[in-house]
Every structure is written in C-alpha cells, then in structure tokens.
Design a protein that fits this description.
single chain, 223 residues, alpha+beta, 23% helix
Length: 223
C-alpha cells in the first residue's frame, strides 16, 4: 500500500494497492453468489440515480452483510490514514455503464470520511474520480456536471486502489464518461468518534429504511 497526497492538508489522497486484486475479485464473486447464485446478474438491483445519466446497479451494505463486514474491517486502517478515531457508517456497491458520468455533489453527514474503492473495469480502462481542491459552499442537494472555473484533481485508480476524501466538504464525481462497458466500485463511509457527526455512526436511519423496503417487498402478493 502506498499513499499519494496529503490527506490532512488537502482532504483527499490516493491509496494505491489498498486491497489486493484477488480480494476485489473474491468480493465480486461473493456478491454474485450471495445475491442469487454464481450465474445470476445484478439486473434485479437496477436503480435510477439522480447522480447519473442512466440506471446503475446499486446494492447497499445493509442488504448484504459481507459488505458491512468489509466496511468494519477497514475501519482501523482508515483511522490510521485519516489520523482520526473513526466509526463506520455505511457502504454500498455500484456498477456504472459505458458512457455514464457521476454528477458533482457533496455528501450527507454520514460521509465525513469517505473511500471510493475500484473493484474492476470490464475493459481495463481507468476511470478517474474528480475532486474539488477547495471546500464547497453549495448545498448537498446541488448537482452539477462540471466544476466550471473551480480547481479540481482527477485521480485514476486501478482495481484495488482507492481514493480517500472528505465527502461532506469536497464536491466530487466523475465528469468524463465511463470508457468501459461497465465498472464496479465500492463506496465506504465513516464518521469521527466524538465528532459532530457521531450520531450517524452505523447509519441507523438507513438501516431502518432498508428494513422497511425489505418488509414491503415481502408483503407484496405473488403474481
């Protein structure tokens, strides 16, 4: 593992080789097997996001326990990298399609310290994450497709690489279209123990939302 950049000063840094590529491949296999069998697709988890131009595959960690375990397991090393004592909030898995973007945004309080981990590219073409170099004064709900005149950094990742960034403070997204037929990513989030966002640890509100969705699905009559 090698860190490029000064997280304390800039609010973001590239963490090269955070996870071995064998582990990213195993996580993808685990997701497929755990959510319908080794030959299944992720089509049932398609979601239309305001952040993107077309539907994505999105699976919250609260719906698949091994993903939460991955988040919890990374907590000590992310605490070391940020220089803060952290508590996990939530994570989610997403697959983007060819030509897609991710509109620029800032995150909700659960994302005080965030990690974008690249799991894989269908065509081995790195797709950079773009991050503003200065804190944002825009509301969380404000979405934009480019930075305008504001300075930003584009950070390329290989599978197993990650970008650590302050999701609440810095606008981020992907302004160039995805060059791959698909790309898979895991997004993980933490808050500081004893900090102003500690109430969002373990993201209790999101847990309740997911459980309610699952209960509603179970109540639907069979066709």
């Amino acid at each position: 593992m090698k860190v490029h950049g000064d997280y304390a000063a800039d609010g973001y840094a590239l963490v090269e080789g955070l996870v071995p590529v064998e582990v990213t491949a195993a996580l993808m296999s685990s997701l497929r097997a755990g959510l319908g069998g080794p030959n299944s697709s992720f089509a049932a988890f398609q979601s239309q996001e305001l952040l993107t131009r077309q539907p994505t595959i999105e699976i919250p960690g609260h719906s698949f326990f091994p993903m939460l375990t991955f988040l919890w397991g990374l907590t000590p090393i992310i605490s070391e990298l940020t220089g803060r004592e952290l508590l996990p909030s939530y994570d989610y898995f997403r697959i983007y399609q060819k030509g897609d973007i991710c509109r620029l945004h800032t995150d909700r309080p659960s994302c005080e310290h965030s990690l974008s981990l690249t799991l894989g590219y269908s065509d081995d073409q790195p797709w950079p994450l773009d991050i503003a170099r200065l804190p944002s004064d825009r509301p969380v709900s404000k979405l934009e497709e480019d930075f305008g005149e504001d300075p930003y950094s584009s950070i390329e990742m290989k599978p197993g690489d990650a970008v650590l960034y302050r999701g609440v403070e810095l606008r981020h997204g992907r302004v160039t279209p995805n060059p791959n037929r698909s790309s898979a990513h895991l997004f993980l989030h933490w808050v500081e123990r004893g900090g102003k966002h500690q109430a969002h640890a373990f993201d209790a509100a999101r847990v309740a939302e997911v459980r309610q969705q699952q209960q509603n699905q179970q109540k639907q009559p069979a066709l």
